[in-house]
Amino acid sequence: MAKIFCVANQKGGVGKTTTTVNLAAGLAKIGQRVLMVDLDPQGNATMGSGIDKRGLELTVYDVLLESASVKEAAVLSDKCGYHVLGANRELAGAEVELVELERREKRLKTALAQADGDYDFVLIDCPPSLSMLTLNGLCSAHGVIVPMQCEYFALEGLTDLVNTIKQVHANLNADLQIIGLLRVMFDPRITLQQQVSEQLKDHFGDKVFHTVIPRNVRLAEAPSYGLPGVVFDPSAKGSQAFVEFAQEMVDRVQRLPVPRNSEVKMASGA
Ligand code: ADP
Ligand code: MG
User: Fold this and answer.
1) What per-residue confidence (pLDDT) applies to 259?
2) C-alpha distances in angstroms, 190 versus 185, 195, 197, 213, 214?
3) CATH 3.40.50.300 fits 3-262, yes or no
4) For the CA of 10, the nearest ligand
């Protein structure tokens, strides 16, 4: 059964897309079958996985509107070793179109359920807002990975996201939880970053991933080559950190509670 994770934070530029594509590449590198879903109309995660968003015949938009299945719309990125359910500008329209439709927040969940056996991990790159698109991501997921920079307002910025996750958990998806906070773009020479990092650990305990992603210029350069850093320059410090993070995710997933749906199935089948 595929484990499904949203990479979310309502702030822009915090490293969501970088985390999604590099974690996908890291997981693929250690032998996991991965689907990366781009839920941001900017299509950065698509382009950053070596897939030209302008040339795509089918995207996550078609999947949300139920005119294509995940199997039909996902494409393999040869260079990266994972499948991509891509996005482009067209997806911006889905926001409005979905409002009119039934089960509007569960469309991605339904579609992913049909591809469940094909992947070990599904990673969803969310846009920087709590929109209908993000809601589709949160309704589909077992957990949320929250990338964050260790800056002064980091904790305050989390409140909205934590509240949204609580609401989705209560009303729409009882499996949803924060899997962990990932410290990204970390610079240990900056005292404030160290302090905020300590605060995070005090507040959130083992919800803070052990792996820390350093600020690393190779990670920032990689998208202009249409690749995740992990593929573009595997020896870079940032790339190595993401492969380490992939291993941490594999370990953490083994300790996750069994999702409710399968508990019900197991109980009734026994
Ligand atoms: P988001 O998807 O949250 O908007 P991005 O992943 O696009 O954020 O990251 C924002 C910018 O920061 C991009 O230019 C990206 O290349 C850069 N970046 C992200 N992570 C790192 C890192 N660890 N080191 C250096 N630059 C980074
Ligand atoms: Mg992004």
Assistant:
1) 63
2) 11, 9, 11, 14, 12
3) yes
4) 1
How many Cβ atoms sit within 10 Å of the Cβ of residue 57?
Answer: 9
39 pocket-lining for ligand 1 (C-beta < 6 Å): no
Predicted local confidence at residue 123, as pLDDT: 98
For residue 34, which phi and psi values (nearest 5 degrees)?
-125, 135
Report which ligand 1 atom has the smallest distance to the Cα of 186.
Answer: 23
End-to-end CA distance of the chain: 19
Rounded-to-integer distance, Cα 219 and Cα 227, Å: 9
CA–CA dist 243, 116 (Å, integer): 24
* Residue whose CB lies within 8 A of the most ligand 1 atoms, among 18, 190, 213, for a mutation test: 18
Could you give the residue ranges of the DSSP H alpha helices within the chain? 16-29, 44-47, 60-64, 70-73, 90-99, 107-113, 132-140, 154-171, 191-204, 217-221, 229-232, 237-254, 260-269
Decide: 87 in ligand 1 pocket, CB within 6 A: no
The atom number, within ligand 1, closest to the CA of 221 reads 16
Token representation of residue 167: 């609401």
Residue 106: pLDDT band with limits 50, 70, 90: very high
Locate the domains of the chain by residue range. Answer: 3-262
Q: Indicate whether 113 pLDDT > 70.
A: yes
